[in-house]
Amino acid sequence: MATRKPPTNPEAEPRVKAVFDDIRATRKADFINNLWPALAFDPVLLESTWAEVKRLMVTPSQLDPVTKEMIYIAVSVANACSYCVHSHTAAARAKGMTDAQHAELLAIVALAAKTNHLVTGLQVPVDPVFDAGAA
Amino acid sequence: MATRKPPTNPEAEPRVKAVFDDIRATRKADFINNLWPALAFDPVLLESTWAEVKRLMVTPSQLDPVTKEMIYIAVSVANACSYCVHSHTAAARAKGMTDAQHAELLAIVALAAKTNHLVTGLQVPVDPVFDAGAA
Amino acid sequence: MATRKPPTNPEAEPRVKAVFDDIRATRKADFINNLWPALAFDPVLLESTWAEVKRLMVTPSQLDPVTKEMIYIAVSVANACSYCVHSHTAAARAKGMTDAQHAELLAIVALAAKTNHLVTGLQVPVDPVFDAGAA
Amino acid sequence: MATRKPPTNPEAEPRVKAVFDDIRATRKADFINNLWPALAFDPVLLESTWAEVKRLMVTPSQLDPVTKEMIYIAVSVANACSYCVHSHTAAARAKGMTDAQHAELLAIVALAAKTNHLVTGLQVPVDPVFDAGAA
Amino acid sequence: MATRKPPTNPEAEPRVKAVFDDIRATRKADFINNLWPALAFDPVLLESTWAEVKRLMVTPSQLDPVTKEMIYIAVSVANACSYCVHSHTAAARAKGMTDAQHAELLAIVALAAKTNHLVTGLQVPVDPVFDAGAA
Amino acid sequence: MATRKPPTNPEAEPRVKAVFDDIRATRKADFINNLWPALAFDPVLLESTWAEVKRLMVTPSQLDPVTKEMIYIAVSVANACSYCVHSHTAAARAKGMTDAQHAELLAIVALAAKTNHLVTGLQVPVDPVFDAGAA
Questions:
Q1: Taking CB atoms and an 8 Å limit, are D38 and E132 in contact across chains?
Q2: What percent of chain D has pLDDT over 70?
Q3: pLDDT at D1
Q4: Closest chain C CA to residue F56
Q5: The dihedral of CA A85, A91, A97, A98: what is its sign?
Q6: Contact state of B114 with C116 under an 8 Å Cβ cutoff
Q7: Which of A77, B15, E131, E135 is most buried (CB neighbours < 10 A)?
């Protein structure tokens, strides 16, 4: 189910086709996952979302590709985005995440959630030494 | 402000002192952050929480220490736990997270939140190929 | 799937029937969406929920009906309520939300989520000038 | 800090005074916590919120008063509402919650958060037997 | 759909079998719900999760079993964990939660969410008297 | 408190100064709120965030400026971002949001949260008619 019907033939729109072509070239694969046709109703949103994903998740940077995907999964789990958990777990595996790394990721996410809730329940005051904004 | 007054002298309780001593020995530092005295009201909870943190975040494993802290920060941001964001950002820095890695972490967390909300707003159906449970 | 079986014939209960009749009369439509039978197990909860929805979302007020539905969608997305995103997107369309307004709503919700996470990650202190409680 | 300045003398408005008087009579105490003056800008919202709180949290019912406050705290922790965690922890204590019950509450909330995140990370399919909606 | 394929025959692994046997013995039932095979990929995580669930949710303690399950449901609802809402609603019923208690639980969870959002929207300052950390 | 010290003189960096100048020109005001110096550590992130805020929130579009700010507030409340609730409430007022509109916004956000939690607790199945993706 979806709240908006994807276009029947999204690549009939040249701006959409250009993004899809770039996704395929970047990933060296023909497969386009459902997110991108779902965004095709608004070429500006499609272009800017893909550009941001490509810049942050694909361009080589300080963090390695698997680490970046694991961070993405962590946020998606905490925000309860089922689609995002699925798609980024698949992406992490495609980039080399091992089963052992995945197991460890899940255990850390679960532990963080546990202490997040403990701390919020106790309303623990922030230690002054943690304030990076202090002179 | 806190919902529960920490004990005035938590280390008078031997089980609490044993945990605090292990925290100091593990971190090679005298500083005990507010979370641990805040948990001292319940030695079982204190012991089990520290044991889990130590096992997952300190013991060498598949993921390097900075990556583990960044995953912890990502969850803590999404769960809006102010104390946890502060304490794990400090921990990540203590373990070697650079300013550039921190900047990248924040940008990825923000992008993930953005697409989490887009996908939830559109209710994008999960691609069948993402189903790892399929035969 | 549901955690509670809706009554087979909810309108056999006069208080439930009265609410359903008012829903149909208010919306000028026969269709009753699943939420209302799902609440029929508790006539007080059903009556008070519908009364609140009717008062805030149907009665003419400061905000126009489409704006009200868009605010409802925004909260439902952030709370990851799949049913609510679906039902209020349908309601917004029924009240006149255009495709262009829907596209803009989604882009703003996504941007807000992005900056929410950035700000929480940075723990930006609130500007004193924002304090409406100050004298 | 607040986003809206509470009225200087909220009880000058008779509808507000009536609610505040009922809060004091119900709780058998003079103290009015900040939530209620904060809602005084809108007498309808103030009246309906207090009426709902009184009906569900004060009127004798299936669940005992401490259990009700603990459920309230659990939701407030998960929604990261600092004020609500504080006010309902105080309310639970005023109604008899012991330190041992509070400790157990926090441990269960933390465990639930942990398994919530594990399950979301794994996208565990719902067991068909849990479907109460099935015939 | 799942992000990780459960083992075909999880009980071939002795540590997994030991946990499953203990679940069946503890619950006096043959049924093992999907969560446990889903965790079987990592025996340490499986053992520690079940040990924590058993210690907090099964061992007799300050809070009665139904109250504990209702707290668990409350957190799971707020964290939007569909599986957890289903499984713990079933568990609460198995332990004796009545329809009337369930109805009341849902009404309180909904009210808490309502006031959580009101308070966050108003940024109501915490009353100093709620600070249990004060001398 | 903050997790990252803002630069002492952010406008010494020309890219930062250019963004700040554009913020002042766009808003026709000298005041720069804390978010922007907080982002100045990363000119790319600063520029892209401001560009997205300007494009979606300032450029005339389908939705009027007050509606856009109310949607932003709604998401920020649900994500429990204190800073964002403050800054966007101030922005909405600066753009003309009346006290009555603000009151209505808060009441709708609270109602949405209430029904979000009710629906999630009941796991109400989506009505097939809401599926916009259907043929």
A1: no
A2: 99
A3: 78
A4: C108
A5: positive
A6: no
A7: A77
Non-local CB neighbours of E57 within 8 Å, separated by 6+ positions:
D108, D111, E65, E68, E69, E72, E91
Residue A135, exposed/middle/buried by CB under 10 A (0-12, 13-18, 19+)? exposed
- Considering only the beta carbons, identify the residue of B77, B116, B117 that sits closest to C120: B77
- Residues of chain D contacting B40 with CB distance shorter than 8 Å: none
Output phi, psi for F131, to 5 deg.
-80, 100
Query: Would the CB atoms of D117 and A110 count as touching at under 8 Å?
Result: yes
Q: Pull the structure tokens for residue F110.
A: 């609270």
Interchain proximity D103–B41, CB inside 8 Å: yes
Can you give the C-alpha Rg of chain A in angstroms? 19
pLDDT at B133: 75
CA geometry: angle E45, E46, E51, nearest 5 deg? 100
Chain E touching partners, 3 or more CB pairs below 8 A? A, B, C, D, F
Cβ contact (<8 Å) for A107 and E1?
Answer: no
Mutation site, F79, F81, F120, interface E, largest E CB count within 10 A: F120
What number of residues does chain E have? 135
CB contact under 8 A, E5 and B48: no
- Identify the pLDDT of residue F135: 45
F1 pLDDT band, cuts 50/70/90, is confident
Q: Which of F98, F123, F124, F127 to mutate to test the interface with D (most CBs of D within 10 A)?
A: F123
Question: Angle, to 10 degrees, between the axis of helix C14-27 and the axis of helix C43-53?
Answer: 20
Q: Which of B56, B12, D61, E84 is nearest to A77 (CA)?
A: E84
D113 min Cα distance to partner chain A (Å): 5
- pLDDT tens, position by position, A1-10: 799 988 899 9
**Cα–Cα distance between E42 and E35 in angstroms, integer?**
12
* pLDDT reported for residue D133: 75
Q: Return d(Cα D78, Cα D112) in angstroms, integer.
A: 10
As given in the structure block, the two tokens for residue C119 are 């700000």
- Nearest-5° Cα angle at E116, E110 to E118: 105
Instruction: Using 50 as the pLDDT threshold, list the residues of chain E that sit under it.
Output: 135
- Residue D47 exposed, middle or buried by CB count within 10 Å (0-12, 13-18, 19+): middle
